[in-house]
Amino acid sequence: MLHRITLHLARSKQFPEGSPRYGYDITAPLDRHGHLDQEEWGAKRDLCRVRRFWADEGERRGVLVHRPGGAGGATWMIDYNQGRPGDEEAGYHLHQHRFAEGEYITIEDDDGKPHTFQVVAVIPAEVGNPGGQR
């Protein structure tokens, strides 16, 4: 089932309280345990969208992709321009993480710098509004 997952920047040296001004809205299929569902992703990949919001930098929109290689035999990534390599952001062991409120997820930006995010919401995605995006 597709879910809309909201991530906010977790606590760090630069942001001791974290920050809701930095994060992601991700539409992705989750299994009953809250893990990314690769099989359902394969059937619904066109609906697996990502909106990155980054304070004053504005938004970036992309897609959730699953590529061979990496830890566990595959890597989940956010791809902002599928026609241009090098702008992807890789998730750190996303195949192992549970997407549930309060859990933490690490995503590397396109420069390879890791950022930790807290899952602040997981809700069923609206079928008529892919990505639950406005």
Structure overview:
- It contains one helix and eight strands, in the order E-E-H-E-E-E-E-E-E.
- The chain is mainly beta.
- The chain has a single domain, classed as Lipocalin (Beta Barrel).
- It has an eight-stranded antiparallel beta sheet with strand order 6-5-4-3-2-1-8-7.
- The longest helix has 7 residues.
- It is globular and about 40 Å long.
- The C terminus is likely disordered.
Spell out the key features of this protein.
134 residues, mainly beta, Lipocalin, 8 strands, globular, disordered C terminus
CATH topology: Lipocalin
Main β-sheet, in a few words? Answer: 8 strands, antiparallel
* Gap between N and C termini: 20 Å
Global structural class:
mainly beta
- Tally of distinct domains: 1
